[in-house]
Specification:
The protein has 13 helices and 16 strands. By secondary structure, it is an alpha/beta fold. The strands form 3 sheets. Strands 10-9-8-11-13-15-16-14-12 form a 9-stranded mixed beta sheet. Strands 3-2-1-4-5 form a 5-stranded parallel beta sheet, sandwiched between helices. A hairpin with a 2-residue loop joins strand 15 and strand 16.
Protein backbone atom coordinates (compact mmCIF):
# COMPACT_ATOMS: atom_id res chain seq x y z
CA UNK A 1 0.00 0.00 0.00
CA UNK A 2 1.34 3.43 -0.99
CA UNK A 3 2.30 5.80 1.82
CA UNK A 4 -0.51 8.30 2.38
CA UNK A 5 0.53 11.83 3.34
CA UNK A 6 -2.28 13.28 5.44
CA UNK A 7 -2.28 16.95 6.36
CA UNK A 8 -3.98 17.75 9.68
CA UNK A 9 -5.01 21.11 11.13
CA UNK A 10 -7.11 21.47 14.27
CA UNK A 11 -8.65 24.71 15.49
CA UNK A 12 -8.30 24.07 19.25
CA UNK A 13 -11.00 26.56 20.24
CA UNK A 14 -13.59 25.67 17.58
CA UNK A 15 -17.08 25.48 19.06
CA UNK A 16 -15.89 26.35 22.54
CA UNK A 17 -18.75 28.77 23.06
CA UNK A 18 -21.49 26.27 22.24
CA UNK A 19 -22.11 24.72 25.65
CA UNK A 20 -22.20 28.13 27.37
CA UNK A 21 -24.70 29.65 24.90
CA UNK A 22 -22.22 31.98 23.18
CA UNK A 23 -23.22 30.54 19.77
CA UNK A 24 -19.65 30.07 18.56
CA UNK A 25 -16.02 31.01 19.11
CA UNK A 26 -15.50 33.76 16.52
CA UNK A 27 -14.81 37.27 17.69
CA UNK A 28 -12.33 38.98 19.99
CA UNK A 29 -12.41 37.71 23.56
CA UNK A 30 -15.13 35.09 22.93
CA UNK A 31 -12.88 32.10 23.63
CA UNK A 32 -11.67 33.68 26.88
CA UNK A 33 -15.26 34.46 27.87
CA UNK A 34 -16.28 30.87 27.15
CA UNK A 35 -13.45 29.46 29.25
CA UNK A 36 -14.39 31.80 32.10
CA UNK A 37 -17.92 30.41 31.95
CA UNK A 38 -16.60 26.87 32.33
CA UNK A 39 -16.46 25.74 28.70
CA UNK A 40 -13.95 23.12 27.64
CA UNK A 41 -12.29 22.71 24.26
CA UNK A 42 -13.53 19.64 22.38
CA UNK A 43 -12.12 19.91 18.87
CA UNK A 44 -9.13 17.66 19.60
CA UNK A 45 -11.47 15.00 20.97
CA UNK A 46 -13.51 15.28 17.76
CA UNK A 47 -10.35 14.91 15.68
CA UNK A 48 -9.34 11.81 17.65
CA UNK A 49 -12.64 10.15 16.70
CA UNK A 50 -11.78 10.60 13.04
CA UNK A 51 -8.16 9.50 13.38
CA UNK A 52 -9.09 6.37 15.34
CA UNK A 53 -10.82 5.03 12.22
CA UNK A 54 -7.44 5.14 10.47
CA UNK A 55 -5.49 3.17 13.09
CA UNK A 56 -5.56 -0.09 11.05
CA UNK A 57 -3.59 1.77 8.35
CA UNK A 58 -1.18 3.52 10.73
CA UNK A 59 1.93 1.98 9.15
CA UNK A 60 1.00 3.46 5.78
CA UNK A 61 0.14 6.99 6.95
CA UNK A 62 2.36 9.96 7.72
CA UNK A 63 0.55 12.87 9.34
CA UNK A 64 1.95 16.31 8.58
CA UNK A 65 0.57 18.83 11.03
CA UNK A 66 1.01 21.91 13.22
CA UNK A 67 2.44 21.95 16.73
CA UNK A 68 0.71 21.20 20.01
CA UNK A 69 -3.10 21.27 20.03
CA UNK A 70 -3.29 22.19 16.35
CA UNK A 71 -2.68 18.55 15.45
CA UNK A 72 0.58 17.26 16.92
CA UNK A 73 -0.86 16.11 20.26
CA UNK A 74 -3.75 14.17 18.74
CA UNK A 75 -1.65 12.49 16.05
CA UNK A 76 1.10 11.43 18.46
CA UNK A 77 -1.42 10.31 21.10
CA UNK A 78 -2.59 7.59 18.70
CA UNK A 79 0.93 6.64 17.67
CA UNK A 80 0.89 7.95 14.10
CA UNK A 81 4.13 8.79 12.33
CA UNK A 82 3.93 12.56 12.81
CA UNK A 83 5.85 15.40 11.18
CA UNK A 84 5.37 18.88 12.66
CA UNK A 85 5.76 21.50 9.93
CA UNK A 86 4.32 24.58 11.65
CA UNK A 87 5.07 26.10 15.05
CA UNK A 88 2.54 28.30 16.81
CA UNK A 89 2.94 32.08 16.84
CA UNK A 90 1.89 32.37 20.48
CA UNK A 91 0.14 30.64 23.38
CA UNK A 92 -3.28 31.25 21.85
CA UNK A 93 -3.98 30.07 18.32
CA UNK A 94 -5.44 32.46 15.77
CA UNK A 95 -6.93 32.38 12.29
CA UNK A 96 -3.50 33.37 11.02
CA UNK A 97 -2.03 30.19 12.54
CA UNK A 98 -4.58 28.13 10.61
CA UNK A 99 -3.80 29.89 7.34
CA UNK A 100 -0.02 29.66 7.80
CA UNK A 101 -0.26 25.98 8.74
CA UNK A 102 -2.38 25.22 5.67
CA UNK A 103 0.09 27.05 3.42
CA UNK A 104 3.01 25.05 4.81
CA UNK A 105 1.17 21.72 4.61
CA UNK A 106 0.28 22.18 0.96
CA UNK A 107 3.94 22.89 0.22
CA UNK A 108 4.76 19.45 1.65
CA UNK A 109 2.79 17.69 -1.11
CA UNK A 110 0.17 16.13 1.15
CA UNK A 111 -2.52 13.94 -0.41
CA UNK A 112 -5.43 15.43 1.55
CA UNK A 113 -5.93 18.22 4.05
CA UNK A 114 -8.05 17.13 7.02
CA UNK A 115 -9.10 19.96 9.31
CA UNK A 116 -11.23 20.19 12.45
CA UNK A 117 -13.32 23.25 13.20
CA UNK A 118 -16.46 25.10 12.25
CA UNK A 119 -17.49 27.44 9.47
CA UNK A 120 -14.94 30.06 10.54
CA UNK A 121 -12.15 27.50 10.22
CA UNK A 122 -13.46 26.46 6.80
CA UNK A 123 -13.27 30.10 5.71
CA UNK A 124 -9.64 30.30 6.86
CA UNK A 125 -8.76 27.13 4.96
CA UNK A 126 -10.62 28.29 1.86
CA UNK A 127 -8.75 31.61 1.91
CA UNK A 128 -5.55 29.66 1.23
CA UNK A 129 -6.73 26.58 -0.66
CA UNK A 130 -9.72 27.92 -2.64
CA UNK A 131 -10.85 25.11 -5.00
CA UNK A 132 -7.39 23.91 -5.98
CA UNK A 133 -6.72 21.14 -3.44
CA UNK A 134 -8.80 18.36 -1.82
CA UNK A 135 -9.86 19.03 1.76
CA UNK A 136 -12.22 17.46 4.27
CA UNK A 137 -13.64 18.94 7.46
CA UNK A 138 -14.13 17.22 10.81
CA UNK A 139 -17.18 18.95 12.35
CA UNK A 140 -16.14 20.58 15.64
CA UNK A 141 -17.82 23.99 15.58
CA UNK A 142 -21.18 25.26 16.82
CA UNK A 143 -22.44 26.18 13.37
CA UNK A 144 -21.76 23.93 10.40
CA UNK A 145 -23.46 25.44 7.37
CA UNK A 146 -20.68 24.57 4.92
CA UNK A 147 -20.80 21.51 2.70
CA UNK A 148 -17.09 20.72 3.18
CA UNK A 149 -17.66 18.76 6.39
CA UNK A 150 -18.35 15.10 6.97
CA UNK A 151 -21.60 14.44 8.82
CA UNK A 152 -19.70 13.23 11.91
CA UNK A 153 -16.03 12.93 12.95
CA UNK A 154 -16.09 9.17 12.37
CA UNK A 155 -17.58 9.74 8.93
CA UNK A 156 -14.56 11.92 8.11
CA UNK A 157 -12.34 9.01 9.06
CA UNK A 158 -14.34 6.69 6.81
CA UNK A 159 -13.90 8.97 3.81
CA UNK A 160 -10.13 9.09 4.35
CA UNK A 161 -10.17 5.30 4.73
CA UNK A 162 -11.79 4.98 1.30
CA UNK A 163 -8.99 7.05 -0.19
CA UNK A 164 -6.22 5.13 1.59
CA UNK A 165 -7.61 1.80 0.39
CA UNK A 166 -7.76 3.08 -3.19
CA UNK A 167 -11.54 2.93 -3.51
CA UNK A 168 -13.23 5.23 -6.00
CA UNK A 169 -14.12 8.51 -4.33
CA UNK A 170 -15.58 11.38 -6.35
CA UNK A 171 -14.17 14.88 -5.97
CA UNK A 172 -16.89 17.50 -5.66
CA UNK A 173 -16.95 21.28 -5.29
CA UNK A 174 -18.69 22.21 -2.03
CA UNK A 175 -19.74 25.60 -0.73
CA UNK A 176 -18.04 27.31 2.19
CA UNK A 177 -20.70 29.17 4.15
CA UNK A 178 -20.60 31.24 7.32
CA UNK A 179 -22.87 33.51 9.27
CA UNK A 180 -22.39 36.75 11.18
CA UNK A 181 -21.94 35.54 14.77
CA UNK A 182 -22.68 38.97 16.27
CA UNK A 183 -26.11 38.84 14.59
CA UNK A 184 -26.37 35.11 15.38
CA UNK A 185 -26.14 35.91 19.10
CA UNK A 186 -29.09 38.26 18.62
CA UNK A 187 -31.16 35.49 17.02
CA UNK A 188 -30.60 36.61 13.41
CA UNK A 189 -29.23 34.14 10.86
CA UNK A 190 -27.45 35.85 8.00
CA UNK A 191 -25.49 33.35 5.93
CA UNK A 192 -23.08 34.17 3.15
CA UNK A 193 -21.15 32.10 0.64
CA UNK A 194 -17.40 32.65 0.89
CA UNK A 195 -16.18 30.30 -1.81
CA UNK A 196 -15.90 26.61 -2.52
CA UNK A 197 -13.40 23.84 -1.98
CA UNK A 198 -12.86 20.38 -3.45
CA UNK A 199 -14.15 17.61 -1.19
CA UNK A 200 -13.83 13.82 -1.56
CA UNK A 201 -17.54 13.08 -1.82
CA UNK A 202 -19.31 10.00 -0.52
CA UNK A 203 -23.01 10.69 0.01
CA UNK A 204 -23.27 8.57 3.15
CA UNK A 205 -20.60 10.63 4.86
CA UNK A 206 -20.60 14.21 3.49
CA UNK A 207 -23.27 16.61 4.68
CA UNK A 208 -25.41 18.90 2.59
CA UNK A 209 -25.29 22.67 2.85
CA UNK A 210 -27.82 23.65 5.48
CA UNK A 211 -31.28 24.56 4.23
CA UNK A 212 -32.30 28.00 5.41
CA UNK A 213 -35.57 29.74 6.08
CA UNK A 214 -38.76 28.99 7.99
CA UNK A 215 -41.17 26.24 7.11
CA UNK A 216 -43.57 27.50 4.48
CA UNK A 217 -46.58 25.36 5.38
CA UNK A 218 -47.94 27.25 8.38
CA UNK A 219 -51.02 25.05 8.69
CA UNK A 220 -48.87 21.95 9.17
CA UNK A 221 -46.80 23.75 11.80
CA UNK A 222 -49.99 24.76 13.60
CA UNK A 223 -51.06 21.10 13.69
CA UNK A 224 -47.66 20.05 15.06
CA UNK A 225 -47.76 22.79 17.70
CA UNK A 226 -51.32 21.82 18.69
CA UNK A 227 -50.25 18.21 19.18
CA UNK A 228 -47.29 19.15 21.38
CA UNK A 229 -49.26 21.68 23.45
CA UNK A 230 -52.15 19.25 24.00
CA UNK A 231 -49.71 16.78 25.59
CA UNK A 232 -48.11 19.30 27.95
CA UNK A 233 -48.89 18.66 31.59
CA UNK A 234 -46.78 19.66 34.58
CA UNK A 235 -43.47 18.40 33.19
CA UNK A 236 -40.49 20.62 32.51
CA UNK A 237 -40.12 21.09 28.76
CA UNK A 238 -36.67 21.89 27.38
CA UNK A 239 -37.15 23.63 24.02
CA UNK A 240 -34.32 23.17 21.53
CA UNK A 241 -33.28 25.60 18.82
CA UNK A 242 -34.79 25.98 15.36
CA UNK A 243 -37.70 27.60 13.57
CA UNK A 244 -40.02 24.58 14.00
CA UNK A 245 -39.69 24.54 17.79
CA UNK A 246 -39.92 28.35 17.74
CA UNK A 247 -43.36 28.02 16.16
CA UNK A 248 -44.55 26.01 19.17
CA UNK A 249 -43.35 28.81 21.44
CA UNK A 250 -45.14 31.38 19.28
CA UNK A 251 -48.37 29.39 19.57
CA UNK A 252 -47.92 29.44 23.36
CA UNK A 253 -47.37 33.21 23.24
CA UNK A 254 -43.93 32.86 24.81
CA UNK A 255 -40.66 34.59 23.96
CA UNK A 256 -38.26 32.23 22.25
CA UNK A 257 -34.50 32.03 21.77
CA UNK A 258 -34.43 30.92 18.13
CA UNK A 259 -30.81 29.81 18.29
CA UNK A 260 -30.69 28.81 21.94
CA UNK A 261 -32.34 26.54 24.48
CA UNK A 262 -35.27 27.62 26.67
CA UNK A 263 -37.25 25.96 29.46
CA UNK A 264 -41.00 26.08 30.12
CA UNK A 265 -43.32 24.47 32.67
CA UNK A 266 -47.12 24.53 32.66
CA UNK A 267 -46.87 26.63 29.49
CA UNK A 268 -44.94 29.34 31.35
CA UNK A 269 -41.43 30.45 30.42
CA UNK A 270 -39.00 29.55 33.21
CA UNK A 271 -35.62 30.41 31.68
CA UNK A 272 -34.18 31.55 28.35
CA UNK A 273 -30.98 30.88 26.40
CA UNK A 274 -29.64 28.41 28.94
CA UNK A 275 -26.06 27.22 29.11
CA UNK A 276 -25.26 23.54 29.56
CA UNK A 277 -24.48 24.08 33.25
CA UNK A 278 -27.70 26.02 33.82
CA UNK A 279 -29.67 23.23 32.13
CA UNK A 280 -27.96 20.61 34.25
CA UNK A 281 -28.71 22.48 37.46
CA UNK A 282 -32.33 23.01 36.42
CA UNK A 283 -33.14 19.37 35.63
CA UNK A 284 -31.62 18.16 38.91
CA UNK A 285 -34.74 19.37 40.73
CA UNK A 286 -37.00 17.09 38.66
CA UNK A 287 -37.53 13.36 38.97
CA UNK A 288 -37.01 10.85 36.17
CA UNK A 289 -39.64 11.23 33.48
CA UNK A 290 -40.59 14.75 34.53
CA UNK A 291 -38.41 16.42 31.92
CA UNK A 292 -39.22 16.40 28.21
CA UNK A 293 -36.97 17.58 25.40
CA UNK A 294 -38.52 19.13 22.29
CA UNK A 295 -36.19 19.27 19.28
CA UNK A 296 -36.28 19.42 15.52
CA UNK A 297 -33.79 18.56 12.82
CA UNK A 298 -31.54 20.80 10.75
CA UNK A 299 -33.09 21.14 7.32
CA UNK A 300 -31.11 19.52 4.53
CA UNK A 301 -28.70 17.81 6.95
CA UNK A 302 -30.82 15.84 9.39
CA UNK A 303 -28.82 16.47 12.57
CA UNK A 304 -30.86 16.37 15.77
CA UNK A 305 -27.85 16.68 18.10
CA UNK A 306 -24.42 18.18 17.57
CA UNK A 307 -25.28 21.19 15.40
CA UNK A 308 -26.12 24.48 17.10
CA UNK A 309 -27.39 22.80 20.28
CA UNK A 310 -24.22 21.80 22.13
CA UNK A 311 -25.95 22.91 25.34
CA UNK A 312 -27.71 19.55 25.06
CA UNK A 313 -24.65 17.64 26.22
CA UNK A 314 -24.45 13.87 26.63
CA UNK A 315 -25.16 14.09 30.37
CA UNK A 316 -28.21 16.28 29.72
CA UNK A 317 -29.57 13.88 27.09
CA UNK A 318 -28.96 10.85 29.29
CA UNK A 319 -30.62 12.51 32.29
CA UNK A 320 -33.72 13.29 30.21
CA UNK A 321 -33.82 9.87 28.57
CA UNK A 322 -34.38 8.77 24.99
CA UNK A 323 -38.02 8.01 25.74
CA UNK A 324 -38.61 11.66 26.71
CA UNK A 325 -37.24 13.20 23.52
CA UNK A 326 -39.92 14.65 21.25
CA UNK A 327 -38.83 15.26 17.66
CA UNK A 328 -41.01 17.48 15.49
CA UNK A 329 -40.76 18.16 11.76
CA UNK A 330 -42.94 18.52 8.70
CA UNK A 331 -43.05 15.64 6.25
CA UNK A 332 -41.70 18.07 3.65
CA UNK A 333 -38.61 18.56 5.80
CA UNK A 334 -38.17 14.81 6.21
CA UNK A 335 -38.68 14.14 2.49
CA UNK A 336 -35.97 16.70 1.71
CA UNK A 337 -33.46 14.34 3.36
CA UNK A 338 -34.04 11.92 0.46
CA UNK A 339 -34.14 8.87 2.78
CA UNK A 340 -30.95 9.83 4.63
CA UNK A 341 -31.21 9.11 8.38
CA UNK A 342 -31.37 11.64 11.17
CA UNK A 343 -27.96 12.13 12.74
CA UNK A 344 -27.09 12.07 16.45
CA UNK A 345 -23.56 13.46 16.81
CA UNK A 346 -23.37 14.17 20.54
CA UNK A 347 -19.63 13.64 20.88
CA UNK A 348 -20.28 10.48 22.95
CA UNK A 349 -20.09 7.37 20.74
CA UNK A 350 -21.96 5.16 23.21
CA UNK A 351 -24.81 7.66 23.48
CA UNK A 352 -24.96 8.06 19.69
CA UNK A 353 -25.37 4.29 19.46
CA UNK A 354 -28.09 4.32 22.14
CA UNK A 355 -29.98 6.98 20.17
CA UNK A 356 -29.76 4.99 16.94
CA UNK A 357 -32.75 3.13 15.57
CA UNK A 358 -36.23 4.26 14.62
CA UNK A 359 -37.71 7.21 16.53
CA UNK A 360 -41.17 8.70 16.30
CA UNK A 361 -41.29 12.12 14.65
CA UNK A 362 -44.40 14.23 15.18
CA UNK A 363 -45.47 15.52 11.76
CA UNK A 364 -48.99 16.79 12.54
CA UNK A 365 -51.84 16.56 15.04
CA UNK A 366 -52.00 12.94 16.25
CA UNK A 367 -49.74 12.15 13.30
CA UNK A 368 -46.34 10.54 13.71
CA UNK A 369 -43.92 8.70 11.46
CA UNK A 370 -41.09 6.35 12.37
CA UNK A 371 -37.79 7.61 11.01
CA UNK A 372 -34.30 6.13 11.34
CA UNK A 373 -31.62 7.77 13.49
CA UNK A 374 -28.07 6.75 12.76
CA UNK A 375 -24.50 7.80 13.34
CA UNK A 376 -21.69 6.76 11.04
CA UNK A 377 -19.43 4.41 13.01
Amino acid sequence: MKEFKLGLVINPIAGIGGSVALKGSDGEGIAEQALALGATAKSNARALLALEILLPYKDNIVIYTAAADMGEHSAKALGFNTVVVHELSGETTTALDTEQAVTTLINHDIDLLLFAGGDGTARNVCHIVEDKFPVLGIPAGCKIHSGVYAITPKAAGRVVELMITNQLVSLTDADVMDIDESLFRQGVVKAKRFGEMQVPSELRYIQAVKSGGKESDELVLQDIAADVIAKMDDELFIIGSGSTTAFVMEELGLDNTLLGVDAICQQTLMASDLTEMQLWQLIQSYQAGQVKLLITLIGGQGHIFGRGNQQLSPRIIRAIGKENIIIIATKTKLNALEARPLIADTGDSELDLELSGYLAVTTGYNDQVLYPVDNVQ
